[in-house]
Every structure is written in structure tokens, then in C-alpha cells.
Amino acid sequence: VAFVVCRSLEGLKTFSYLEELILDNNLLGNDLLLPRLPHLHTLTLNKNQISFQRNTCKILLDHLAEVVPSLQYLSLLGNMACPNELVCKEKDEDDYQRYRYFVLHKLRNLKFLDTRKVTRREREEALVRGAFMKVVKPK
């Protein structure tokens, strides 16, 4: 397990056999770039600055799918991308569920997202509608 407080993740490339990585509270945004970590199965990015602005979260999720193919557990709690009451009082359970479908559409090997186990029904729904589930509300 690695506990990292940083702004640059360049040094992680020397840890190619890393399995768990906790990057909570690091001011990381959607421009986060990880090196290829083929054995990483757990990644927590809680309380950073990841959002759903201008398609950038889609780019981040595509990047994670490419560089951490073994990822099974991801947590984004406390980020604007994870719409729940911890981040914004205007978000509700429907917003959170749409977010889950979108993330599961992008990262199909996940077994846990945030604090909840991925259900078979969620996985099926993510395959059918996940691409259309970005959480966007009119101003």
C-alpha cells in the first residue's frame, strides 16, 4: 500500500507491481495521469478536485481503463464528479446512480465503486445506458 501526498505522480512508474494506491486529499484534478500500473486493483481518489466539466472526467476514466486494467475498486467520494450530499446538497440518489452507471460503463471490471459493491443489475444497466449518464443539470 502506498500513501502519497503529491502534485506529480511521475515517480510511480518505478512501482509497476503496485496493487493499492491511496491518493486522497491531494488536490488532483481531471488532468491526473498515472503511469501504466497493470497490477493495481485498488485506487482511492477521495476528496480531490475531479469533476465532470467539459468531458474531462470521461477522458480521465478512459485513461484509467487503459493504464490500470486490473482496477476493481475505485473511490471518488468527496469530488465534484461524485454527486452526493457530501459534495453538494442539491444532488440526490438519482444523480449518484447515474454517475455510477457512467463510471461502470467506462470501467467495466469494477467490483466496488466508492463504498458500494457493484450489482449485476447496475452492470447490465451501465452496458445499455451508461454512455448517456453523465450527470449534467441545467443552470
From TrEMBL:
It comes from Cochlearius cochlearius. This is LRMDA protein. InterPro entries: LRMDA, LRR_dom_sf. It comes from the Eukaryota. One of its GO terms (biological process) is melanocyte differentiation. The gene is Lrmda.
